[in-house]
């Protein structure tokens, strides 16, 4: 008997049924749609077995599965290398079409080329949609077609193009929910995937205080940030809904969403930035890379309260306030002269909102080695930052309970470290 013809929608960084471009188009297929998620061994094998982000993905998939259950459908969850999983699916099902949303990271690009070749070799039509950004790499360019490497002109062009068609279209997938494949697949536990629960959890996002964003965003003790970043990273929220909302409510918040797209197009256009300086002139800097200093930074025991509070918040919660991120990153690269790749890798391990483009972009900004970066001679003074943004010490006392009992001596003297950093950079920048 002939197998039933089906379409597959492949979830990746778009873990929602609402306003999902690829899913919207898949559900208009003439064939019933199997919703698929693959736990990719190429990614999972490098993670600790209690990685909180895997737990969040599993939790998000469980919510999707509950929504699908009400429609008489369910998620098909697989684990393995993507090529092996797809080879198995091709054998098991009569797949006519596959839809997925585009990813811009180098690993994802290579993976998707392999999968598209495999599908096309088996006469499966593949469809790739833009979903996680408003404008992708070739849509916002300079007049000569080259990518922007400075944020402000990129932002101006981005806003100009957005306003021509604002608000951007949102996609109501629910109109076509009846086209999901009617079958109940087993939903694996976290343990069956090979992971265990972590007490660190992703917080719900909150937009209620964003109207005052520009006034409160630099003060970590106020705790008025949106907590959106992990949800953007894994696509549990729609970038179109967020941008349309921010364009009406707060220009400063909107500019932060544009920074995200700026770094995504930088990564796409200049993939070397993953582990090399964007500005190759900085390749001659002689970093100290002292492992003991790095350990003190990681554990939040440098003797600088703002730095230590930030690192302890990161280690205990998977979050760090953005102002504090700038301070701790500058401290590592400038005060300790440890190259940014060390800090980027540590953040990649710990941050719930870890996203390659933003993490690399922001670390190179702090180090002075990236596009449109802070100049090398700009060295944050952690004590002044503390006085400006946590004057009453509320934030630092939350994360450093021993602060009032006699806090440790600073790992390095600020004035000495600043002079050393500037001299080292100046000597190392290639002419």
Automatic annotation (TrEMBL):
- Site (Electron transfer via tryptophanyl radical) found at 287, 340, 363
A Pfam family found in this protein is: DNA_photolyase
Q: Which PROSITE patterns match?
A: DNA_PHOTOLYASES_1_1, DNA_PHOTOLYASES_1_2, PHR_CRY_ALPHA_BETA
Q: Where is the Photolyase/cryptochrome alpha/beta domain?
A: 5-134
How the cofactor is bound: the record states: Binds 1 FAD per subunit.
- Quick one: which residues bind FAD? 213, 225-229, 253, 256-263
Query: Which superkingdom heads the taxonomic lineage of this protein's source?
Result: Bacteria
The alphabetized UniProt keywords are: Chromophore, FAD, Flavoprotein, Lyase
Q: Which cofactor does it need?
A: FAD; (6R)-5,10-methylene-5,6,7,8-tetrahydrofolate
Report the GO molecular function annotations. deoxyribodipyrimidine photo-lyase activity; DNA binding; FAD binding
Report the SUPFAM superfamilies cross-referenced here.
Cryptochrome/photolyase FAD-binding domain, Cryptochrome/photolyase, N-terminal domain
What does the entry give for GO biological process? nucleobase-containing compound metabolic process; response to stress
Is Acetylation among the key words of this record? no
State the family it belongs to.
Belongs to the DNA photolyase family.
Write the protein's name.
Deoxyribodipyrimidine photo-lyase
């Amino acid at each position: 008997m002939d197998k039933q013809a089906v379409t597959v929608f492949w979830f990746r960084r778009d873990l929602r049924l609402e306003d999902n471009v690829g899913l919207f188009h898949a559900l208009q297929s003439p064939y019933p749609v199997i919703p698929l998620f693959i736990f990719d061994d190429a990614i999972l094998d490098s993670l600790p077995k209690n990685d909180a982000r895997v737990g969040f993905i599993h939790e998000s998939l469980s919510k999707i599965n509950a929504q699908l259950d009400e429609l008489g459908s369910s998620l098909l969850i697989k684990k393995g290398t993507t090529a092996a999983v797809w080879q198995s699916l091709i054998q098991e099902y009569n797949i006519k079409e596959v839809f997925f949303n585009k990813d811009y990271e180098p690993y994802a690009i290579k993976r998707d080329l392999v999968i598209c070749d495999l599908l096309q070799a088996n006469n499966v039509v593949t469809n790739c949609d833009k979903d996680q950004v408003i404008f992708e790499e070739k849509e916002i360019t300079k007049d000569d077609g080259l990518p922007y490497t400075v944020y402000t002109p990129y932002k101006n062009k981005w806003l100009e193009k957005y306003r021509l068609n604002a608000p951007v279209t949102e996609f109501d997938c629910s109109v076509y929910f009846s086209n999901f494949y009617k079958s109940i697949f087993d939903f694996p536990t976290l343990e069956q995937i090979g992971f265990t629960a972590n007490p660190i959890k992703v917080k719900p996002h909150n937009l209620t205080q964003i109207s005052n964003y520009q006034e409160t965003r630099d003060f970590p003790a106020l705790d008025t940030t949106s907590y959106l970043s992990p949800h953007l990273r894994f696509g549990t929220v729609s970038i179109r809904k967020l941008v349309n909302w921010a364009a009406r409510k707060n220009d400063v918040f909107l500019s932060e969403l544009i920074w995200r797209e700026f770094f995504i197009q930088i990564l796409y256009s200049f993939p070397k930035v993953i582990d090399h300086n964007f500005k190759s002139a900085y390749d001659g800097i002689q970093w100290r890379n002292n492992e003991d200093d790095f350990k003190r930074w990681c554990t939040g025991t440098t003797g600088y309260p703002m730095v230590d509070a930030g690192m302890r918040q990161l280690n205990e919660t998977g979050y760090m306030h953005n102002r504090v991120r700038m301070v701790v990153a500058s401290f590592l690269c400038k005060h300790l002269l440890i190259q940014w790749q060390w800090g980027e890798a540590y953040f990649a391990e710990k941050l719930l909102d870890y996203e390659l483009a933003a993490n690399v972009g922001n670390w190179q900004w702090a180090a002075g080695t990236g596009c449109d970066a802070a100049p090398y001679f700009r060295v944050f003074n952690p004590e002044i930052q503390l006085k400006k943004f946590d004057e009453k010490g509320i934030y630092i006392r939350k994360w450093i309970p021993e602060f009032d009992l006699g806090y440790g001596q600073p790992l390095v003297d600020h004035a000495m470290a600043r002079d050393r950093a500037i001299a080292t950079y100046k000597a190392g920048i290639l002419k």
